[in-house]
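Re: that backbone. Tokens:
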């Protein structure tokens, strides 16, 4: 389950570009804050006195841009690191969890950077579509949390008349401009660098988005690469929300897509009412929240007769929600395989999109491999091998031509593999799945979606996707099963790629070094060899060199011919002819582009103004650049 971000070009400012988030609900109230007690009091006043039920409140913190005069900086704070800001604001805003939940308020923090605080305030206020601005007042300060009344007056002058502006000190409004009928507004350009952070609260989440000063000139490959890197930023996001769906007061008209779903699948699946869902989940009780990702939350539900379900609630703020909802229903209902999750029903009342599945008692493979020690100790070698064969069977079924047509899952990972009591795996989460193309050529996607750590190189770099995209991800899952390691593991050496760690061992043939220490010697050597061979072939640098899932399944099931073939391929010297153009990563300075996107937000002050002549990059260089600063989101 992954967050999904799409960006569009905004107005060019200061030679760079402003990237605006699409599909977000507009804000109602913007509150200027900094890290002090006065801002704490100011935000409390705004939440109690100004914000109404259902409002979105943006706590805005402005940092001076690097080009700002030295006297504009807080001498004691300087430029705090992104991590320290995140932690400090998270702690500060966590005290509002109860209040936000009670008033059904979405509380969000945004950190913006600019050379002029008043101009940044105006700019951010308009970009959020806000209607109310609340600022603090102090005798003298350069930080927005203690703004002078002159800043509030400046904002009142520049903002539309249908917006309210408050300047507050110690709970008293010293300046107030009430809203009146709207008028046209033109705002000058302002150079701004933004970092968007959503704090931990029942109605909020936390994510990071960094921007560089990229060249606006169109370059070959760069638009898609930047789209991929923006998607990767989404994958680095850290979810802390206790999402609780709320019913709208007035139900909107049911979209045509949903009417079609009801007519077509109403006899195949159960159509749940919103009242049913509320009852099943005990009014979406936090104790029933069992999973959360970038685009959905999963609740455990129980019926009156004791039947247990898993309810996937898509975030209404995600503009991909309707597309994912309809696609998942259409694809999952067409799939009939014991190792593919079955859809029980769905609900689309009260502006909610909810999918209901059977509950898997043991949770996900990720939980069992990387979760509590008690879970990890419970999944022995026999269970791991059973999971490998089961998931291979599910993917072979998805990729097989016929009726239904073949499907590309696009998000194969351990957190999307659910386990029953007897460790029978079920492949789940088809929100990103697509029907495969009938042509031999791969499809090209403009947006790269999935989970960093499982993305095939040709998909990440060029947006090319076909069945081999799933096969690469399955190879990573096999390495997880064998080693017990995460796709990207953080240890004493920093963040390390599972693929990069395992490849020398696979090539050297000392397969015992791959085995999870928790297993000791409790594994079957012949099965270890077959799993390792399958993993080695699946993570091949060239998509054409990866075997079809049918052959991988035969290999795991100990088919003699498949085993002999796999051994020959694994022991054969690598030939240049085996590489195709998709496997050759073409930018000499591509690692610079990747590193820019993956490095810490604080370091994104450099710009890329040109693309040098193209040369080849090895898979090892690509992986090192790709993984050196990455993290995964499940």
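Recovered sequence:
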């Amino acid at each position: 389950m992954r967050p999904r971000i799409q960006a569009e070009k905004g107005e060019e400012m200061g030679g760079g570009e402003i990237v605006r988030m699409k599909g977000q609900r507009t804000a109602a109230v913007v509150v200027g804050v900094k890290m002090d007690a006065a801002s704490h009091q100011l935000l409390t006043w705004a939440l109690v006195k100004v914000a109404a039920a259902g409002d979105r409140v943006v706590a805005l913190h402005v940092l001076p841009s690097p080009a700002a005069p030295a006297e504009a900086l807080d001498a004691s704070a300087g430029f705090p690191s992104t991590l320290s800001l995140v932690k400090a604001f998270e702690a500060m805003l966590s005290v509002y969890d109860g209040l936000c939940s009670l008033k059904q308020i979405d509380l969000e923090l945004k950190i913006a950077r600019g050379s002029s605080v008043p101009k940044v305030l105006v700019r951010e206020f308009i970009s959020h579509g806000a209607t109310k601005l609340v600022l603090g007042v102090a005798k003298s300060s350069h930080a927005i949390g203690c703004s002078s009344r002159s800043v509030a007056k400046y904002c009142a002058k520049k903002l539309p008349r249908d917006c309210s502006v408050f300047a507050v000190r110690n709970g008293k409004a010293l300046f107030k401009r009430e809203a009146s009928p709207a008028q046209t507004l033109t705002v000058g350009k302002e150079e701004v660098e933004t970092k968007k952070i959503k704090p931990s609260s029942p109605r909020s989440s936390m994510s990071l988005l960094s921007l560089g000063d990229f060249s606006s000139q169109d370059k070959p490959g760069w638009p898609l690469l930047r789209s991929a890197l923006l998607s990767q930023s989404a994958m680095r996001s850290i979810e802390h929300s206790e999402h609780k769906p709320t019913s709208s007061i007035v139900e909107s008209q049911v979209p045509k897509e949903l009417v079609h779903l009801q007519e077509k699948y109403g006899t195949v699946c159960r159509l749940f009412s919103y009242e049913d869902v509320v009852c099943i989940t005990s009014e979406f009780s936090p104790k029933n929240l069992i999973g959360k990702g970038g685009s959905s939350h999963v609740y455990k539900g129980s019926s009156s007769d004791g039947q247990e379900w898993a309810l996937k609630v898509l975030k209404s703020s995600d503009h991909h929600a309707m597309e994912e909802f309809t696609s998942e229903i259409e694809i999952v209902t067409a799939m009939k395989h014991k190792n593919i999750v079955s859809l029980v029903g769905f609900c689309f009342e009260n502006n909610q999109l909810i999918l209901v599945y059977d509950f898997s008692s043991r949770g996900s493979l990720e939980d069992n491999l990387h979760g509590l020690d008690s879970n990890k100790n419970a999944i022995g070698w026999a269970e791991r091998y059973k999971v490998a064969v089961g998931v291979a069977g599910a993917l072979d079924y998805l990729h097989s031509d016929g009726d239904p047509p073949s499907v590309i899952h696009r998000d194969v990972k351990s957190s999307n593999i659910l386990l029953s009591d007897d460790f029978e795996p079920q492949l789940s989460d088809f929100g990103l799945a697509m029907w495969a193309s009938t042509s031999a050529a791969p499809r090209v996607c403009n947006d790269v979606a999935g989970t960093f750590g499982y993305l095939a190189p040709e998909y990440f770099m060029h947006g090319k996707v076909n069945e081999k995209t799933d096969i690469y991800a399955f190879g990573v899952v096999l390495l997880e099963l064998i080693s017990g390691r995460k796709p990207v593991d953080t240890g004493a050496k920093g963040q390390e790629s599972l693929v990069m760690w395992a490849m020398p061992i696979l090539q050297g043939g000392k397969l015992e070094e791959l085995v999870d220490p928790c297993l000791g010697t409790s594994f079957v050597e012949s099965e270890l060899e077959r799993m390792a061979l399958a993993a080695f072939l699946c993570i091949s640098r060239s998509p054409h060199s990866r075997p079809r899932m049918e052959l991988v399944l035969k290999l795991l099931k100990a088919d003699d011919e498949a085993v002999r073939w796999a051994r020959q391929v694994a022991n054969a010297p690598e030939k240049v002819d085996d590489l195709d153009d998709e496997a050759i990563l073409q930018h000499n300075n591509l690692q610079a582009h990747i590193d820019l996107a993956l490095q810490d937000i604080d370091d994104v002050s450099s710009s890329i103004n040109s693309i040098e002549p193209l040369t080849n990059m090895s898979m090892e260089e690509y992986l090192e650049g790709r993984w050196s600063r990455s993290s995964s989101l499940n």
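The longest helix spans residues 381-399. The chain has three domains: 26-209, 256-358, 365-598+614-627.
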